[in-house]
Design goal:
With about 575 residues, this protein is α/β, with parallel strands linked by helices. About 35% of the residues lie in helices and about 20% in strands. The protein contains 19 helices and 27 strands. A six-stranded mixed β-sheet has the order 2-1-3-4-6-7, with helices on both faces. A six-stranded mixed β-sheet has the order 17-18-20-22-24-27, sandwiched between helices. A four-stranded antiparallel β-sheet has the order 9-10-15-16.
């Protein structure tokens, strides 16, 4: 069928629906609803779709569109649930199970007839993680079922006025409900509030006399202090005391100010460093001489007991002959510091006696490459872009030059740009079936580096590599496996990915031909190096990237600024996915 996706943003779920419908040979076009009702109408006129699907929609469809066409809306709540903040309420009420409903658009919000519905277990994770995993899995299954039912023509959607459907209206989830009372709220309550707003909109709070939004929350089982007190920093995150414990907060976002009408989130300690001190003098710094502001920097303990409850973005553990290097960075973005610390841990992992090393990106994002938010906040964005990219290249090169063991990239969540190229540097790529991959840089106005000109053609061939980078479209995990981008699909739920990865890695470590594979790998690397050294790939890629970074007129700078501030893209045409939105 000809299907038009109407989306407020081409986000992770929209990309997944686009990719999986395309896999089924539907002809899928996309239009941004954020460009206005006239843009939607123009897209409908141009495409003449047989069906309209809205995987992620923050505004109502034009009435004339849903009256003249069948329009299916994806609502992140069970049948009968209505309102604009369904997941927020589910997390706040600690619902053990929740659902996704595909319903037909009509005048009343979320009240249309149901074409499909799926339920899922609510994992104790942040809202954005839940959305990209359990919600995405349920939504994908429901959309594919609804589209099939529509195509077959015999299915009659179920009315929500049926007696068995309990209708519940849930209003906007306002900041008043998110507000943390540090003198009274338990750690469990604080974590629930933080996790319900980890990506958007954050929890409005006050630090050092300034209003900021808190993003993300993780428990701490040892540090203690006066409720609300800032206790320590670790790898850019801050630790804050509760009445019965403490929590780690990885990111902060300043409230709107005259200096920046659209401030964006970034590592918490760096935001604190930029806030004026309570006395109004110089900016407060975590290591300043003022005892009231000096925060100890807690070391990143690489190998932690399984029972420890604390936050760290990089860990190493060993299970027999297999090493697991785990990392998890908010939004999948890797700053210069992230890359350098991960490289140091990778080098540490290479000193351990293992035959298999797993790069474990966890259940959320594997990686999205360089950290655009940190770059945008830098005094010299071009210089920070250059430093970040070189640090990323150093990490990828270290993986490519590892010849004494097999390296596996365990891609449990979405991966894009240089983050995906990090995975492709491994000997094997194992990918959860729900992940979405974006093997390109073009939508951020970049040529790309991270040795993609070596690893991508090596896996898929030169012609397919060129197509992937020029079309710049998202791929489903299944599509990636078909073309050779992925070696093994892991068809499990997000919460099961870690255990399944460990099982598969142990199996690989016990394989009788493992030593022969390692020997063959080392020989192949020597052959490739003789044909064209890795240094030449890096030199040529970096030359292209340097020219972009240090050209103030390059579109990368405007696209980066719009992306980090979540401003709409510039193109309204239905066949042109907006630059920056696919990251």
């Amino acid at each position: 069928m000809d299907i038009l996706l109407v989306v407020s943003a081409f986000n992770s779920l929209s990309q997944r629906v686009y990719a999986e419908l395309s896999d089924l040979e539907h002809r899928v076009d996309v239009v941004l609803a954020s460009h206005g009702a006239d843009s939607v109408r123009a897209a409908v006129t141009e495409v003449q779709p047989e069906l309209i699907v809205a995987p992620m929609l923050k505004t109502a469809l034009p009435e004339d569109v849903w009256q003249e066409h069948t329009c299916l809306i994806v609502h992140p709540g069970p049948p009968g649930d209505r309102g604009p903040a369904s997941l927020d309420w589910a997390i706040d009420e600690e619902a053990p199970r929740w659902g996704v409903t595909v319903l037909q658009a009509e005048a009343a919000m979320d009240a249309g007839d149901v074409w499909a519905a799926e339920s899922f277990t609510v994992s104790p994770v942040g809202k954005s993680d839940l959305y990209r995993n359990e919600v995405s899995d349920a939504a994908s299954a429901a959309v594919l079922q609804a589209v099939q039912r529509y195509a077959e023509g015999s299915y009659k959607p179920r009315s929500q006025s049926d007696p068995g459907t309990a209708v519940v209206w849930r209003d906007f989830f306002r900041q008043e409900r998110r507000w943390i009372d540090w003198e009274k709220d338990s750690t469990r309550t604080v974590l629930r509030k933080l996790r319900g707003a980890d990506s958007q909109p954050g929890v409005l709070d006050e630090l050092l006399g300034h209003e900021v939004f808190l993003h993300g929350g993780h428990p701490e089982d040892r540090l203690r202090g006066r409720p609300g007190e800032l206790l320590a920093t670790r790898a850019g995150a801050i630790c804050r005391a509760t009445v019965d414990g403490a929590v780690w907060i990885p990111e902060l976002r300043p409230r709107k100010s005259s200096g920046d009408p659209a401030p964006f989130r970034r590592p918490a300690a760096s935001v604190l460093d930029g806030l004026p001190s309570p006395s109004g003098a110089a900016p407060a710094r975590a290591g300043s001489g003022d005892p009231a502001l000096r925060l100890p920097e807690m070391p990143v303990a690489l190998e932690l007991p399984a029972a420890r409850q604390t936050w760290t973005d990089i860990r190493y553990r060993q299970h027999g002959d297999v090493g697991f290097l785990s990392f998890s960075f908010p939004g999948g973005a890797m700053s210069t510091d992230h890359c350098r610390r991960l490289l140091a841990t990778y080098r540490y992992a290479l000193t351990r006696s293992t035959s298999v090393l797993v790069l474990d990106g966890g259940r959320d994002f594997f990686s999205n490459g360089i950290h655009l938010n940190v770059i945008e906040a830098a005094a010299d964005p071009a210089g920070e872009s250059w430093a970040n990219l070189n640090a990323m290249d150093d990490l990828v090169e270290a993986v490519l030059r590892t010849t004494d063991r097999l390296v596996v990239a365990a891609v449990g969540g979405n991966a894009a740009a240089g983050g995906l190229m990090l995975a492709l540097a491994a000997d094997e790529v194992w990918c959860r079936t729900g992940a979405v991959l974006n093997p390109h840089y073009r939508r951020m106005g970049l040529y790309g580096s991270e040795f993609w000109t070596y690893t991508l053609p090596r896996r898929v061939g030169a012609r397919t590599a060129q197509k992937l980078t020029e079309e710049a479209l998202p791929l489903s995990a299944a599509h990636a496996a078909r073309i050779g981008l992925v070696d093994r699909l892991v068809p499990v739920a997000a919460q099961e990915f870690g255990a399944e990865t460990q099982r598969l890695a142990t199996e690989l470590g016990d394989a009788p031909d493992l030593l022969q594979r390692i020997t063959a790998k080392a020989a192949a690397r020597r052959t490739d190096e003789n044909e064209r050294p890795l240094a030449e790939y890096r030199r040529d890629e970096l030359a292209r990237m340097r020219a972009i970074f240090f050209d103030p007129r390059a579109e990368y700078h405007a696209l980066r600024s719009a992306f980090v501030r979540k401003l709409p893209g510039s193109s309204a045409r239905p066949l042109s996915l907006p630059a920056g939105d696919a990251r």
